[in-house]
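Table 4 source record.
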Amino acid sequence: MKKWLKENIFVKDMFIYIVIAALIFYIPTWVLFISGILTGDEYFFGISAAYILIWAGPFTPTIPIIFTIAVFLKQLVKKIRRKEE
């Protein structure tokens, strides 16, 4: 377990995967926000803010989900790179 953590989590490039995973996790917010800008409807802004507030609250699994997405992305990139070689 300790070896897996050193190889997959405690590396420099993991920060990039975490940022990408956070962007993926908040895709509904981005879509609603952009829809609100395009249509001028405040309803979309409200739903976008509600999504952020619900997931930012205590006792939500936001951080574990983002870490899970990041590890999945890293493993996927590793697999693709191995296939290319």
